[in-house]
Specification:
Blueprint (H helix, E strand, L loop, with lengths): L2 H56 L5 H11 L6 E6 L14 E4 L12 H10 L5 E5 L9 E7 L4 E8 L1 H49 L17 H50 L4 H29 L1 H7 L3 E4 H18 L4 E6 L3 E4 L1 H17 L7 E7 L3 E8 L21 H7 L5 H11 L3 E7 L3 E9 L2
Helix pairs in contact: 1-2, 1-4, 5-6, 8-9, 9-11
Length: 475
């Protein structure tokens, strides 16, 4: 999807939502305006009816006709239709046999303002505080409908007031026309502004995409400029840059790893090829053949060790996912590894002993833990000079077991401590061939420790020795 199509789709959705909002807003505004007009009209009707009643009530001798005339004159701007309905007194005689009397203002002619009698009775029952409002057609009096109220005066008196709805209808019609004509104009105006805002908002995203398209595995050093933004786009750019940095680091590690693998495998292959070329130059005696074949065998074993370690690390994820945990005596496993290396240590005149071997049961993969301890002790023997010493101790604490492997070897420089667990890293490359190390042993140690949640601490000083401390969590 191109940015033009994305911008177009966002604009369409924006316009659809805007149409819905404007339509609903216009409907709500129209209804509120209509309600306000009717509310004002009903208040005016009630005020005219109340005034008519008060004029009649205020002085003795004032007839209903006088009250009607004065009220009509007072509210002549409204051109009201006022009528007084005198109902028969039910307490004196049967209302069915009594004629109702209708008194009305001068602008009412005939019976065009009369309603059904049941409505007047209903208004009388509802009382003065709850007048009855309704809309009626009064063609002889007004071409427009009338809004009328039935207001109870006395027990058997109902004051009826009507006002034409012509002005209210015209006002509603004008508002409707304004909404119909102004709505599209408002939609167009806001739509143009919204489209501009959407394009402007998408501009940084477009820059991100354009820069991202230029980034490849060969050019991971590029970064996207955020321009100091602190909004969501700025966060997106920062996140993207962080991802590129991680990818760059991973790619660099892969490149270094490939180069290291090539170097480590090329060295024994070069030696083997040289030995074969030497042996083919002329005939040799049996002793020379054996020496050369022994050298080839040694290099082949070195390559086999590298390949085995690489295969183990390459299967790390699948081994972790399929690993079956078991409870086993950690102290016995450590002791077995120590016993296996005692002859090799003795061959280098290095005394090695296991002390304070506390009984500890650990939950994990026993073969992997054995491999981890083996690699650490093997390193200790490789880099400890004759006459040195190696000590292994296992102590049990409250919720953890502490395994320490201490040697008095050549030690590790402080600047090398952060990277000793990297693949193919060798502290002293000049001695790597002599010691037989591949640079993968500690990488395997770190991987095994991580999948068992074992914490590793390394304390080392050059020419004084190294101590590896493993913290085993106990459930």
């Amino acid at each position: 999807m191109t940015f033009k199509s994305l911008s177009f789709k966002l604009t369409i959705w924006y316009m659809v939502i805007l149409i819905i909002i404007i339509t609903l807003g216009g409907f709500f505004l129209f209804e509120r305006f209509r309600y306000s007009l009717m509310d004002d009209l009903e208040k005016k009707l009630n005020r005219i009816a109340t005034t008519t009643y008060r004029i009649w009530w205020s002085k003795k001798g004032v007839t209903w006709q006088d009250a009607l005339r004065k009220a009509e004159e007072q509210f002549k701007m409204c051109q009201p239709f006022i009528q007084v309905v005198l109902m028969p007194d039910e307490r004196k005689e049967n209302p069915r046999n009594k004629t109702w009397e209708f008194l009305h203002s001068a602008n009412i002619t005939g019976e065009g303002f009369h309603l059904e009698k049941v409505l007047y009775l209903k208004a009388r029952e509802q009382g003065r505080d709850n007048p009855l409002y309704l809309t009626m057609q009064a063609a002889p009096l007004s071409p427009s409908p009338l809004r009328t109220t039935l207001f109870r005066g006395r027990s058997y008196v109902v004051i009826q007031v009507g006002l034409s709805l012509e002005n209210a209808i015209n006002a509603q019609r004008r508002l409707f026309i304004i909404l119909i004509l102004g709505g599209p104009f408002l939609l167009l105006l806001v739509g143009i502004g919204g489209s501009f805002i959407i394009r402007r908002a998408l501009r940084p995203v477009k820059s991100v995409v354009q820069t991202a398209q230029k980034i490849s595995a060969e050019n991971l050093s590029m970064r996207i400029e955020s321009g100091g933004r602190r909004d969501e786009i700025g966060q997106l750019v920062d996140t993207f840059n962080s991802m590129i940095a991680r990818l760059e680091g991973s790619v660099d590690k892969i490149r270094r790893f490939s180069a290291d693998v090539s170097h480590e495998l090329r060295t024994p292959l070069t030696i083997i090829r040289g030995e074969v070329e030497v042996i083919l130059r002329k005939d040799r005696d049996k002793k020379e053949y054996r020496e050369i074949l022994g050298s080839i065998l040694e290099e082949t074993q070195q390559m086999e060790n590298i390949i085995d370690d690489l295969l183990l690390l390459s299967r790390a994820r699948s081994v972790h996912n399929k690993m079956v945990l078991e409870d086993f005596p950690l102290h016995e496993t450590v002791q077995e590894v120590v016993d296996k290396f005692i002859p090799a240590a003795a061959g280098k005149e290095i005394p090695m002993e296991a002390e304070d071997m506390a009984a500890v049961t650990f939950t994990g993969k026993r073969t992997l833990i054995e491999r981890m301890v083996t690699n650490v002790i093997d390193n200790a023997i490789r880099y400890t000079q004759p006459g040195g010493a190696i000590k292994i101790a296992l102590k049990k604490e409250a919720e953890a077991a502490l395994l320490t492997v201490t040697d008095s070897g050549i030690g590790i420089p402080p600047e090398a401590l952060p990277v000793i667990f990297d693949r193919f890293y060798v502290v002293d490359k000049s001695r790597s061939k002599e010691s037989g190390g591949t640079g993968l042993g500690l990488s395997i140690v770190k991987w095994i420790a991580d999948i068992h949640d074992i914490k590793i601490d390394v304390d080392s000083r050059p020419d004084r020795g190294t101590t590896f401390t493993f913290l085993f969590p106990l459930s």
